[in-house]
Amino acid sequence: MSVRRLAEASVQPASFAFNRANAAAAKQWIKKYPKGREQSAIIPLLMIAQEQEGWVTKAAIETISDMLGMPRIRGLEVATFYTQYQLNPVGTRAHIQVCGTTPCMLRGSEALMDVCRSKIHHDQFHTNDKGTLSWEEVECLGACVNAPMVMIFKDTFEDLTPERLAEIIDLYGAGKGAEVKPGPQDGRTGSEPASGLTSLKSEKAILKSTRDREARAATKAAQAAPDAIIATAVPGPAAVAPSNTSKPKTKAEPATAFKAPETKAPAAKAAKPSLEDKNRPAGIDKPALVDDLKLISGVGPKIEGVLHTLGIYTFAQVASWKKAEREWVDGYLSFHGRIDRDDWVKQAKALAKGGVAEYIRVFGKKPV
Ligand code: FES
User: Fold this and answer.
1) How far is the CA of 108 from the centre of ligand 1 (A)?
2) Residues 172 and 99 in one domain
3) What is the separation of C-alpha 263 from the centre of its chain, rounded to a whole number of angstroms?
């Protein structure tokens, strides 16, 4: 990581002021933030100053900090933290930031830096003889999938070879930087496989993939609505002729569009088992002391109320249920299966035998 220090005092200008256009732009940026939060505009304002001066001077940092009513040290902290701010004069035509972080390094960024050393200056942050080019090593610039890469002002140049970077530097040096197209320099689009596409190679394949996806979605929708009649999309005279009758189509008629699912009357609620059923567990009158059935995991106040209406008040009663009796009680619950799923019988046996202490001994935890 490069050391971020302000430029020598000898190259620092005595003062800074935005030109008319940039002053207006700065004002706009400040207006974007709520009153009292104007400091948030420090980043765009420093960038505008850099675009105006070519680099960020100490005078610019101080002037902008004063404009935003923030301590100058805070402005200095921001300017010295982000590598997009140039704290030294840089090349007037290009300042090349070479990413030296691991993915780019493994893909050859060292060789790119050698090109900069030979074509610009041996040391970073120094301009070439004409003052038109400079370079530096920076941390990851977020284009690792196209490593190695460099950034020149706001553009990134990716998938570089030393030869291609040398060409780019020559073009910028000659004032023809606008001729270089940013992005991958090896011909690939974005970050598609470097060896070329491996799938969806033709428009036909892409269309087929889209159709398959749509067909899968339609099948899924039909499965979700089993009663829907999916009309066979057979184009024929009946399909293309405009119909002036409102007679509904039958299943046998070809149709042209997906038929909306027919709404089905809600299934009748399963009848509760008869109170006279032989499988009904024996109920009792409410005893003076009722057990707190809610200690059984899966029994809440509502279910406890249901159990009471069925004459079930004690752990011992629940503990004695056989399969047929459990199924009978299950018929009175809104969510079926919980008696066996939560093993009410085992829980009730423990609670009936020794209360909470026995429950903890058996289950290793308190009843909830
Ligand atoms: S490592 Fe170079 S762009 Fe991320």
Assistant:
1) 11
2) yes
3) 37
